Amino acid sequence: MDEELLPIGRFARLCRLSVKRLRHYDEIGLLRPARVDAASGYRYYRREQARDAFVIGLLRSLDVPLPVVARVLEGEAADALRQARDRMEAELARRRRALAALDRVLAEGLPAPRVELCDEPARRVRTVRDLATPESVAAVTSACVARALDGPPPGLMAGLFPLDMRDEFPVTVAVEDPAGTEVLDGGRFAAAVHLGPYEQIPLTVHAVLAWCGEHGFTPVGPVREVYLDDPASVPAEALATRIMVEVAER
């Protein structure tokens, strides 16, 4: 056997990786052994492969996903790591928002806003639409609002979101405009006012949906967030947003 080759056990100790991990990296094509014994299936590695093994170990210790690690080993380090960092930063922001919402629940208890039924008229509107994910919904909504404001002074402004916001979903911002070319349907809605930051609106949405279930109403439409304040002049803790969910007759 070539003396430059190290059996998998020695290579694992050299690179501070487990044999199990090296086998897995071979199976997914991330770090192939230099030689595999045809009879025993035993894996052997060259010493030069230690650098790639250490890169894998380092990046995995930083929670970099394996597909990104593969791109780094293929020479795409700058773009791959920048994208991984952006995703991690977005996830960190999401967790911070979740932590703030949890702190609010701990301080105030589970949300129990006053929910009431109301009949909403149809309105002529202009709309701005885009696609979002759970991680990007705040940024996408803000961008849609900015685009919607680039026009005549708005009347009522509402964000429309699907009841199920998993994977990718549409976001719509509708601005009341007598000259608008679209119609925002009216109907019967369960409604409550959310007080506080926009990122904590899901607390009130869940309370409205729970009220619907308790009173035998079936939600049939998207969630409407009617923005009652200007966030540029009202502190986040004092922002008022009317949450509306269209319901079917019992």
Automatic annotation (TrEMBL):
HTH merR-type domain segment(s): 5-75
GO terms, molecular function: DNA binding; DNA-binding transcription factor activity
Record flagged with keyword Membrane: no
Pfam families given in the database record: GyrI-like (PF06445), MerR_1 (PF13411)
The keyword DNA-binding belongs to this UniProt entry's keyword annotation: yes
Keywords, alphabetical: DNA-binding
The protein's name in its UniProt record: DNA-binding transcriptional MerR regulator
Originating organism: Actinomadura namibiensis
